[in-house]
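Take a look at the protein record below and tell me what you see:
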Amino acid sequence: MISSYKRSFTILAALLMAFIANLNAWETAIAGVLTTPPAQSPDGHVFSTADDRALHCLDAETGREYWNFRPGRKLKSFTVVSPDGSILILTSVNDLVSVSPGGRELWRIPFSEEPLLSPAVDPYGTIYVLTASNTILCIDRRGTKVWEKPWSSTVSMLFATHTALLVSGEGVTTVLQADGSIDTVIDDEIRNIVYREGDLFWQNRGNSWKTLNMKTHTLTPADSPLDEGILFADEQVLITYEGKIVAGRKDWFMEALEAGEDAYDPYYQKGANPGRSSGIPEIPGEAERIRQFAQRGGAPLLPLLSANPAYLNQVLKEFESVDSFQELISKSPDYDLVLQEIVSDSNVVSFDVHRERLDAYSRFRIYRILSRWGNLRSRETLMFLLTLETDPDNLALILDGLGRIGLDRDGRSMLAIQTCRSRFPHNRDLTLSAVRNASLIARYNGNKSIASMMTLFAEIQQGPMDRAVLAQIRKELGSF
């Protein structure tokens, strides 16, 4: 009998240990009570604020703390992770603060009162805030106010896509274009949204599911995109207890993770994990974006533009004349691919030696546009154009675009800077651009980017160096 009890106990203990191991749980002590639900970024970091006046960055698998950031005030209301890796937090005096993935303040905007909802962020990093006066405010990823629009009715949800902002409440959903103008009004209200495989699934207040066509903004009845048993979280995805964050519980987030990549991919609009509230898929890679662009069909642009130089000048003037990124993507959401096609088509990439070439000044204008309006979607375009360009002055402009984008999770932007500089080690302007933009990327991403920047600076200082370059290096080092 005793041996039977022992055997049962051993089996039970083994099952319990296996269950615990499968949970892969951890807990990390935070100095104080958590003040906002934790948010998780796509690259495996967890962010949470506590009443120690700090934003904490933790590893999602181990709970290890990478860094903490203190804005000088207590934090409240929300923690939102943008697609560009930055984290949005709100202080007790209603300052909206953007923090880089490396834990440095990017900018802050003061509000007179607390926003009514957590901010919505689109794939470009553009932020939409519903202020206490029921005004929708558009802020670009650099912290510049672009437009504001008073709203006459109650808003229950803001949801941003790469082409529109959905404003839902009181039984209807209004679709705003990127520049703030009204596109259409849909006679239905959003309860939850799931973005999967390029489709936007919409659950209304009556719990019916529909798909939203992002071009025509029409709704079509659909089955639920969620696997059985995967539910929206009622309060928060990661469990908090006595000032600790505990990960690995069997909630819908972990169920989706275990169900595979397809189930894990959807971003949930509601459920108090604001970092996954923007419904944004990962930015397509270069090959996928080029494939999508090629599906448009039609003749190559350059021969048409070369036959009519005035038309090419008109196209470039339209892009040069815009005052905000939102105005630019209203003209062409894929403006960077249009410019990429013009430049790449101007190179002899086949044995057709009679292929048209683009004049040097037009190339310069294109790079200048991309350097000014570089965004998450145009990073692959800039990387591609680096492989085509041989003029160091134009390369410096392309590097400026990468520096303004900032986000460099895979280290390719920093590698591109090092490679370009090594091609023309004695060109002062390109070296200055490399120093300046390596510093921007290092401040934005932290960790390995800082080490890469220091390696680059050391390599530059090993050879003969212009005084302006030395002064720039000292200035950048002094900013850390």
In short: The radius of gyration is 25 Å. The longest strand covers residues 75-81. The chain has two domains: 25-276, 286-478.
